[in-house]
Amino acid sequence: GIFYGTDINPALELKKMIEEDNRIKIDELILTEVTTVMGAHTGPGIWGVSYCPVVSK
């Protein structure tokens, strides 16, 4: 997932880069806005990435 503050544009750029990179296999990519509490403590320019790897047995 990609999260962002008040400006979605950096998140959209990162999403495009990830989707165009053939080395990265993604089942689902979620964009979401951070909470107002997180934004208040970090500022409006916050953005970040989180992931959960799929483990095969």
TrEMBL record:
Annotated signal sequence is none
> What residues form the membrane-spanning segments?
none
Cross-referenced InterPro entries: DegV, DegV_C
Protein name listed in UniProt: DegV family protein
